[in-house]
Amino acid sequence: YKELKSKCERAITFSTKNESADIFLKSEQAGISNLHLQGRVFDVKVDTNLSLFGEHHVYNIMVALAFGSYLNIPVVKLIKNLNAIQTPWGRCQVFKTEAGGAILFDAYNANLQSNKALLESAKKIDMKCPQIVLGEMFELGDHAKKMHFELGRAVGELEFETVCFIGESLSSFENGLRSANFSKNLIISDTYNEKLAIELKNVLNPSGTILMKGSRGIGLEKLLPLWLNEASNMPSTY
């Protein structure tokens, strides 16, 4: 990128690996709502904790810092305002349940890459009674079976107490899950219905950690009232 930078009138580089970049940040998921950032923005040191889930956010943060710097916003001000970052509806939102647990609600959209990013961050933190509810990944065409199998296998490699999958690719997902020797609680359904909601309310432990991710069309937000106080803790509807 040094060659490319030399050809530009003004260029700002960023990296999570190359310490010579203008913006160099590394992230570590320290808790379900605690993302630790460390590095520097030009000559200003960064060492802060953000109320975010997902190490992949570091790339969005570096791009925002680069644009802010390009617009001549003082670097110190940019770094200070990192603590004001909030994710929009359905994007890695964390909610506390009435029973003292936590729900990670990331159900605005889903593909194999974003699901794996979520799992990668999740396996780095201590979760009390980890559970996961996944929805169909839409618009995959002929790749749907293969990708849902891969998703099931990736989930099965982690230590979830209960796994739930909702969508038409339930068989492919289950086959992938079983290929990783998953033997704990499994709930599968081709669609959302009241019977499923009752089963989930009885099986999932609201004092533990529940991860929720799926494509928008599945509508996983319908499950949130099972564990959240609607008056004070429910996310606004998208």
Task: Provide an overview of this structure.
It is built from 7 helices and 10 strands. It is of the alpha/beta class. A 6-stranded mixed β-sheet has the order 5-6-10-7-8-9, with helices on both faces. A 4-stranded mixed β-sheet has the order 1-2-3-4. It is elongated and about 60 Å long. The two termini are 40 Å apart.
- Round the mean pLDDT to the nearest integer and report it: 92
Low-confidence stretches: none
Q: Evaluate the radius of gyration.
A: 20 Å
Number of helical elements = 7
Helix fraction?
25-40%
Count the E strands. Answer: 10
Order of helices and strands: HEEEEHHEEHEHEHEHE
Cross-sheet strand order for the largest sheet? 5-6-10-7-8-9
Strand coverage percent: 15-25%
User: How far is the first residue's CA from the last residue's CA?
Assistant: 40 Å
The helix/strand class is: alpha/beta
Instruction: Report the sheet with the most strands, covering strand number, pairing sense and barrel closure.
Output: 6 strands, mixed
The 3D shape can be described as: elongated
